[in-house]
Design goal:
Radius of gyration: 19 Å
Helix content: 25-40%
CATH topology of the largest domain: D-amino Acid Aminotransferase, Chain A, domain 2
Strand content: 25-35%
CATH class of the largest domain: Alpha Beta
CATH architecture of the largest domain: Alpha-Beta Barrel
Bound molecules: 4'-deoxy-4'-aminopyridoxal-5'-phosphate
Largest sheet: 9 strands, mixed
């Protein structure tokens, strides 16, 4: 349980961390957020998350209430105040208090909220044995409607796909775009391995530009001597894949061994996925060691 919440420049007790019922973040999901992992008391890829936060805000015409440097500082203070060693930080900008009506410019002051707490990952056994997922019937919202690279407070598109997963008895759903191509999952990005080649949908499919995705493409896979191909992926490619894995701040890297009723590859977490999981942890530990 979080001891102190950052609210607009000060740390307050959880019971004092409140927002107005007139906040457009509540009324319309008007705002944006970030989820950041803490390892060994240090926020991982903090700068990338802060930059994406500022970018999400600007894309919805919300002038960030703090500069990137101020946000970094506030996040670090909140982690320290809550003595989080291994956990998770949620950063939220809400549009602020306004009148009833959509106009975001009727709101005077955006809010900045930072919560540092623990996180519940997928069950440990799934990292060893792999996870089952479904392909959601509901498509991912198209870029032209609401670019999924904006991490907005309105996650209903993902939540409703997540409900499809829960109703099917699994924990994650793959989302296709309106062209029927693979985009991402409700809270993770997706990769496949076919004949030794690692592939992932390119960002034009419409997705959150995952920081873990980028870490795997730019650092983890190259450290193993592999490159990642960003390309168009159709559902059939997934069913024909030797391996599939997901990436996310909370999920890290996790293997997928089944989609709908189909078994993927040999039905176990594949060797390339296992090597990437190992390398991921080595590199996280390495970054930590560099800072301490
Ligand atoms: N896609 C969606 C829709 C997400 O919400 C997330 C974050 N939970 C991701 C992908 C993974 O992104 P990241 O690696 O930056 O956490």
């Amino acid at each position: 349980m979080s001891r102190s919440i950052w609210m607009n420049g000060t740390l307050v007790a959880p019971q004092d961390a409140t927002v107005s019922v007139f906040d457009h973040g509540l009324l319309y999901g008007d705002g944006c957020f970030e989820g950041i992992r803490v390892y060994g008391g240090t926020a991982f890829k903090l700068r990338a998350h802060v930059d994406r936060m500022q970018d999400s805000a600007r894309r919805i015409y919300l002038e960030p209430p703090c500069t990137a440097d101020e946000l970094v500082d506030a996040i670090e203070q909140t982690i320290e105040a809550n003595r989080i060693e291994d956990g998770y930080v949620r950063v939220v900008y809400t549009r602020g208090k306004g009148s009833l009506g959509l106009n975001p410019f009727s709101c005077d002051q955006p809010s900045c909220i930072i919560i540092a707490d623990t996180i519940s990952l997928y069950p440990e056994a799934m990292y060893r044995d792999g996870m089952g997922v479904i392909i959601a019937k509901r498509p991912r919202v198209p870029i032209a409607c609401l670019d999924p690279q904006i991490k907005s407070l309105n996650y209903l598109n993902n939540i409703l796909a997540k409900v499809e997963a829960i109703e099917a008895g699994v924990l994650e759903a793959i989302m296709l775009n309106c062209q029927g191509n693979v985009a991402e999952c409700t809270g993770d990005n997706i990769f496949l391995v076919k004949d030794g080649v690692i592939k992932t949908p390119d960002t034009s499919a419409g997705m959150l530009h995952g920081i873990t995705r980028q870490f795997v493409i730019e650092e983890v896979a190259p450290a193993c001597g592999w490159t990642v191909e960003e390309c168009t992926i159709v559902p059939e490619d997934l069913f024909q894949a030797d391996e599939i894995f997901l990436t996310g701040t909370a999920a890290e890297v996790i293997g997928v061994t089944g989609i709908d009723a189909s078994v993927i590859g040999a039905g176990v977490v594949g060797p390339i996925t296992l090597r990437l999981i190992e390398q991921f942890h080595t590199m996280v530990a390495g970054e930590l060691a560099e800072r301490t």
